[in-house]
TrEMBL record, chain A:
Name assigned to this protein: ABC transporter ATP-binding protein
CDD domains: ABC_cobalt_CbiO_domain1 (cd03225)
Pfam entry (one): ABC_tran
Native organism taxonomy: Bacteria, Pseudomonadati, Thermodesulfobacteriota, Desulfovibrionia, Desulfovibrionales
Coiled coil: none
């Protein structure tokens, strides 16, 4: 069986500086991949490329049978983004209610955006729907906002959930909720998880594969 | 002083008594400015988004032109529109000269730079995480435009009221393109200019009061929206 992601000959530069140099990297479907490395090692660049927010300047990414490279048009990346979603360390919440934030992804996909699905997604991240659904974006703490952002991605049932330092700035309860919800996604729906985290204990306990980066290169 | 107080007293009588000529100018102003502001926002919001969001050669030059147009004198706009829609002009066959629609064309040119510049500025200064968030949730380019404009909606409303304030108070375009025709294209501002020139101070004051009320409403809206934007 071919891997879900195959990256080959990836080289990415910013202002002439080499940010990422990956001769080869594969990610199997349904696996949990941890990405670690010091600041500036290229972790976030890799995540943006896996999320198809950034196209490779050199090399190719093959995802589920579809290839993208520097010459690929925006429509192909947009099509692939329907299967992949990214949760960042400090996610942006739309200036809307919690329910509208959680349901936004379904709405833009033209899928039925039911209140039940929103309630379930909120329950998955440990937020009581009755209490949170109608809150405005500015009425949430940092941990609650992060959990709402995760709920907005869980509801999409993506093939791949990319998480870039999802728990680093959270209280322990919120961090644990995020960890549990992401693991449940993999177990229940076979979602592939790619996690960047400084929490090596968590990564070591859940990941099938670790990708170590240093100065934009694979370190082990 | 008596002359001014008498003018104000007579102005109230004209307004409260339903003086037809006065209310005709009020109606023409409200009608044409409503058409103008709707067209201005419909055109200006997407153009402002493109200017604030997209990178293209000559973008800085376009920004400079738009910013320069913010202070475009209304009589110059009136002159240009007059040239285009006069009988011998390239758009003369449309028959827009001395009509409210003709005034609206000029007023859209007046309001457009305000909306484009303010929306472009809001989009440029929007949170840098917004685009990635929308894309990773599956938005396509049209949905990205709509969601971004919704995110900066208070700025858009602020731009709308600022443009409306400019449109409703202009006199040069209405006078040159509309021709100040009684019962037809005479607006509040052109009527004030005419009536004051004729010595009919009361009607000028009456129309001035209506304009002040509109301006007051616009200012209240602007200050309320500024508070929302600052939130």
């Amino acid at each position: 069986m071919s891997p879900l992601y195959s990256l080959s000959g990836i080289r990415q530069r910013y202002a002439g500086r080499l940010a990422l140099d990956l001769p080869s990297l594969s990610i199997e479907e349904g696996s949990i991949v941890g990405v670690a490395g010091p600041n500036g090692s290229g972790k976030s660049t890799l995540m943006r490329m896996l999320a198809f927010l950034e196209m490779p300047q050199e090399g190719q990414i093959r995802f589920d049978g579809t290839s993208v490279d520097a010459s690929s048009g925006g429509s192909r990346a947009a099509m692939l983004r329907k299967h992949v979603t990214l949760l960042t360390q400090e996610p942006y919440l739309l200036r809307r209610t919690v329910a509208e934030n959680v349901g936004y992804g379904l709405a833009v996909r033209g899928q039925r955006n039911s209140a039940d699905a929103v309630r379930q997604a909120l329950a998955d991240v440990g937020l009581p729907a009755q209490e949170f659904m109608h809150r405005q974006w500015f009425e949430l703490s940092g941990g609650e906002a992060q959990r709402v952002a995760l709920a907005a991605r869980i509801i999409l049932r993506p093939k791949v959930l990319l998480m870039d330092e999802p728990t680093s700035s959270l209280d322990e309860e919120s961090a644990e909720r995020i960890r549990m919800a992401s693991m449940r996604m993999r177990d229940a729906h076979g979602t592939t998880l790619v996690i960047v985290s400084h929490d090596r204990e968590w990564l070591d306990s859940v990941t099938d594969t670790m990708v170590m980066l240093r100065n934009g290169h694979l370190a082990g | 002083m008596d002359f001014i107080l008498e003018g104000i007293y007579k102005a109230f009588l004209l307004l409260l008594g339903g003086h037809e000529e006065t209310w005709s100018a009020v109606y023409a102003t409200v009608a044409v400015s409503s058409i103008s502001i709707c067209a201005t926002v419909l055109l200006g919001a997407p153009l402002g988004f493109l200017l604030g969001y997209c990178s293209f050669p000559g973008r800085r030059a376009v920004r400079l032109v738009v910013d320069t147009l913010l202070s475009f004198p209304t009589v110059v706009i009136g002159l240009i529109v007059y040239g285009f829609i006069s009988r011998s002009g390239p758009l003369g066959e449309l028959g827009l000269l001395f009509t409210l629609q003709g005034i609206a064309v000029g007023q859209v040119m007046l309001g457009l730079p305000v909306v484009v510049a303010m929306v472009a500025n809001a989009v440029e200064n929007a949170d840098e995480r917004l685009e990635a968030t929308l894309l990773t949730l599956g938005a396509d380019s049209t949905q990205l435009l709509r969601a971004t404009l919704w995110e900066v909606r208070y700025h858009l409303m602020l731009a709308t009221v600022a443009a409306y304030g400019r449109i409703v108070s202009e006199v040069g375009i209405s006078m040159m393109v509309g021709g100040n025709i009684k019962w037809h294209t005479r607006t509040i501002t052109t009527a004030i200019a005419l009536e004051t020139g004729k010595g009919e101070f009361a009607m000028g004051v009456a129309l001035g009061l209506v304009l002040l009320i509109i301006a007051f409403g616009v200012n209240i809206s602007v200050s309320g929206l500024k508070r929302r934007v600052a939130k």
